[in-house]
Specification:
By secondary structure, this protein is α+β, with helices and mostly antiparallel strands. The protein is built from eleven helices and ten strands. It folds into three domains: 7-123, Acyl-CoA dehydrogenase/oxidase, N-terminal domain (Butyryl-Coa Dehydrogenase, subunit A, domain 1, Orthogonal Bundle); 128-235, Butyryl-CoA Dehydrogenase, subunit A, domain 2 (Beta Barrel); 245-380, Butyryl-CoA Dehydrogenase, subunit A, domain 3 (Up-down Bundle). It binds flavin-adenine dinucleotide. Flavin-adenine dinucleotide is lined by residues 96, 129-133, 138-139, 163-165, 361, 364-365, 368, 370-371, 374.
């Protein structure tokens, strides 16, 4: 099913496409913002690209114009994601900051916090990470134990965070801490905007199976964080966290883009790869797998379109977001499986090889498969709690 986009969205597409043609250097095509943690050169390259995007007001088009965005509507955001995927252009360096943390600062921050943090985040001058998960608080985030104790004009923070994407290069952290241990767990949490260069903050890179230090652990030992770092009221951090997580989940509308691009790539490969003197695409078993995969990609597109339709009608993201996340992460795993079927051992090298091992992380990030299945079971299918 194809629907026609409104003329304003198509006008925006033409404008952004022309800008990308003019400004995107070949060596940036296919670069991943996460690769910025690999070396100082990679960081500077991504930062320079980020500044270019920001100067043209393409770094955060959904942000209001007063903060350097375009106040773009849903369809422009869809077009923006489509054009980034089509061209292979990396998005902004501050992947987490711009889409997840900034909305919390805009909604809960003071004017001073907005002025201090948003412009530098937009340009990539400050890189942000999210300090939510702990060794014993992931799916059950409200169990977090990192403590912040008020002392004069400061909070003294002690504890540990883990799985902090971009933590290795982050300048600032949106940190969830426990400020009151004596109330029900959701009610004693606060959110602090923490300078990662404060004494007592120690970042330890976590190198994953892909060989990249995409994550870190962050240890806090008697870190004195000024009270002015509080985002939203004290002990109201759960509400701030929910703003951040809602925006994290709002990204479902474009999940199908990367998946369908990879599936199209596999279909092309199946046609051009020769097996026993014939195109691999002639193999009936492989054809079945490719057809199933293709349908899965199209199904994900329908789920994404449904999310877009909901947004256009002003409906808040509902439990169908969990379904889209679930299908997306499973589809990425199936792509890796079919690549293995088609390419054999060669599927373990290059970008197919990276995707093959990385796909596992997608079943955990942004809500695990099991937790999402529970949400779908209870809130979509109406099944009783297990
Ligand atoms: C790519 C990636 C990026 C990430 N980036 C960040 C980041 O920037 N900042 C940050 O703070 N965190 C980040 N995380 C961490 C992520 O939020 C957590 O890994 C996630 O919330 C799961 O928590 P956990 O790892 O502690 O697993 P747990 O919650 O301990 O889960 C362990 C297992 O138990 C299952 N389980 C848990 N609860 C239930 C239940 N109620 N019913 C059934 N099964 C259940 C889970 O599905 C899983 O299989 C990232 C993770 C990944 C993979």
């Amino acid at each position: 099913m194809n629907f026609e986009y409104p003329p304003e969205a198509e006008a925006f597409r033409a404008e952004f496409r022309a800008w990308l043609n003019e400004n995107l250097d070949d060596d940036l095509v296919g670069a991943r913002p996460m690769a910025a943690s690999e070396s100082p050169e990679a960081l500077e390259r991504m930062r320079a690209w980020n500044r270019k995007l920001a100067d043209a007001r393409y770094a955060a088009i959904a942000w209001p114009a007063e903060y350097g965005g375009r106040g773009a509507g849903v369809m422009e955001q869809v077009v923006y994601a489509e054009e980034l995927h089509r061209s292979g252009a990396p998005g902004t360096l501050n992947v987490i900051g711009i889409s997840n943390i900034a909305p919390s600062i805009m909604e809960h921050g003071t004017e001073e916090q907005k002025r201090r943090f948003l412009p530098a985040m937009l340009r990539g001058d400050d890189v942000w990470c999210q300090g939510f998960s702990e060794p014993n608080a992931g799916s059950d985030l409200a169990s977090l134990q990192t403590r912040a104790v008020a002392d004069g004009d400061d909070y003294v923070v002690n504890g540990q965070k883990v799985w902090n994407t971009l933590g290795v290069i982050a300048d600032w952290c949106e940190l969830l801490v426990r400020t009151d241990p004596d109330v029900p767990k959701h009610k004693g949490i606060s959110c602090l905007l923490v300078d990662m260069r404060l004494p007592g903050v120690e970042v330890r890179p976590l190198v994953t199976i892909t060989g990249e230090a995409e994550f870190s652990e962050i240890f806090f030992t008697d870190v004195r964080v000024p009270k002015s770092a509080l985002l939203g009221p004290e002990n109201d951090g759960w509400r701030v966290a929910m703003t951040t997580l809602t925006h994290e989940r709002g990204g479902v509308a474009s999940l199908h883009l990367g998946v369908r691009k990879k599936i199209a790539g596999l279909l092309d490969l199946a046609r051009s790869t020769t097996r026993n003197g014939r195109p691999a695409a002639d193999d009936p078993v492989l054809r079945q797998s490719l057809a199933r995969l293709y349908l899965e990609g199209e199904y994900l597109k329908l789920l994404s379109d449904r999310a877009v339709s909901g947004l256009l009608h002003g409906r808040p993201a509902g439990p169908e977001t969990s379904l889209a996340k679930l299908v997306w992460s499973e589809c990425e795993t199936h792509i890796a499986d079919v690549a293995g079927q088609l390419l054999g051992p060669a599927a373990n090298a290059g970008s197919w090889g990276r995707d093959r091992v990385y796909a596992r992380a997608l079943s955990i990030a942004g809500g695990t498969t099991q937790v999402n299945k529970n949400i779908v079971a209870q809130r979509v299918l109406g099944l009783p709690r297990g």
